[in-house]
Model the fold of this input.
Amino acid sequence: MTRTPAIEAEGLVKHFGDTVAVDGVSFVVPEGSVLGLLGPNGAGKTTTVRMMTTLTRPTAGTARVAGHDVLRDPAAVRRSMGLTGQAATVDELLTGRENLRLIGSLYGLDKAYIRRASDELLERFSLSDAGDRIAKTYSGGMRRRLDLAVSLIATPPVLFLDEPTTGLDPRSRVELWEVLRELVADGTTLLLTTQYLEEADQLADNIVVIDRGTVIAEGTPLQLKDQSGAAALVVTVSQAPDLEAAQALMRPHVREVHVDAGARQLTAPAEGLGHMTRIAGLFEESGIVLDDIGLKRPSLDDVFLHLTGHRAEALPGTDADEPDQPDRQPDHQPDHQSAGDPAGEVSR
Ligand SMILES: Nc1ncnc2c1ncn2[C@@H]1O[C@H](COP(=O)(O)OP(=O)(O)OP(=O)(O)O)[C@@H](O)[C@H]1O
Ligand SMILES: [Mg+2]
Done:
């Protein structure tokens, strides 16, 4: 199946003085699909999005959105897209509804349409009750949702979301994923940046992994997991005292065994289905009772570690390692910034 690309990046490069923020990034996003642009802090995600949405001019290369070139026809690009930036851009002194109306009228939409669409969007993002309160009184999650609602008022066919769920609690995050899935089901093309592997895994049809301004891998979530090497054989014994006997039984048949006493689990590199079946047979004969035996695919987190040498950001509440990059820019705090994402470039 060939679909028209809704977004194309072609050799995008961006220098800020001596800093090479983006160093030749290319990819294609077919219409109606979701691309996850995945990378750690400072990888160049926001800069890439800013070039593709006409907010900053590429040092080299170009991009097309809905067929329009960002350099030759920036106005047409802006008409075809919506953007929710990394920092909240809602006007804090206006109500949620007024924010929607303001942007709707800037797009030149007619009043009756704006009124109807605002009600629908407030409803869709669970903001109906708060719609007539000024945004200053909103929680971080509510502002994030309003931000997204605002970027949808003109029903753009292409939507760019820069870390849409950073700062949201787990429930709001799952709710937002649901809304995004509905948008895609209705035909919207989505490009979202994220540091969260689970988010990319949940939403993206294709993933482009960038690190230090370059693409280091791309593919479907499944392809990326397959690339990063072997699956593991995981055996769970029913009774903790059996762990030692189980380990002794496996040892001659595997390269190494890792024991997790708390989980009553033994993990070893898997060498295919036949290998697993043979080991299952050995357990059958041994009298050691198992709760479970199976093959575990590498997670996207394993993929990321394999590719970059460091773990990606964990979703809040999980316990993966912290990213180890002291020389990069500090964490952003979108919920505490009230100023909009400036269109101009600020040298740091
Ligand atoms: N306006 C700017 N002036 C100078 N350097 C910049 C500017 N914007 C970005 N950079 C630098 O470019 C690199 C890429 O930054 P960018 O914001 O694109 O990364 P990111 O992947 O979005 O990171 P994060 O996950 O923290 O949002 C960083 O080294 C950053 O410090
Ligand atoms: Mg960013």
